[in-house]
# Entry
Amino acid sequence: MALLSLIRFRTEDRRPLLERCLSVDLEVDPKTARIFDIAAVRFDDNIEIAAPRDKIEERLDQLEKALAKVPFVIGHNILRHDIEHLLAARPRLRSKMTAPIDTLWLNPLAFPRNPYHHLVKHYQDGRLQVGHVNDPEQDARLALRVLSDQIGAFTRLGQEAPDALLAYHYLTTRG
# Structure
């Protein structure tokens, strides 16, 4: 997570980083471990995947092309869920996912008093529900909003406690 090294401490402008990200979310059948829906969106609201939901191979092709345009793939729980399934479906995507940003892992650092900040899926009436149908496009958009909030929190932390931000950077970046 090289995110912390990319944050500019003197500005609240989050666009430069967010414009370099592709937010990905997928839905996986828990019984078969197969991807049955996928979405990828950019900060400018550009939807990168347009194939019909049932055309997963076409969607994976579109994702591969979209990943070539950006240095960072982001998602909520992308490290322990989405990447695993994407690589099982398309091993060659590994080279395009070398710098993932996971909003789930960053949230407790950005918001230690409220580690679940904005992670509830507000499009589902603001609370987690059993038996609902997830919307990967909305989830991908939500991950971008959460990342924007996290960048703001880290920017403030850099101004208020630069040593703490430096420690976070050291602990969360790859060697």
Observations:
- Residues 122 and 128 are 9 Å apart (CA to CA).
- DSSP finds seven helices and four strands in the chain.
- The radius of gyration is 16 Å.
- The beta strands are 21-28, 35-42, 72-75, 101-102.
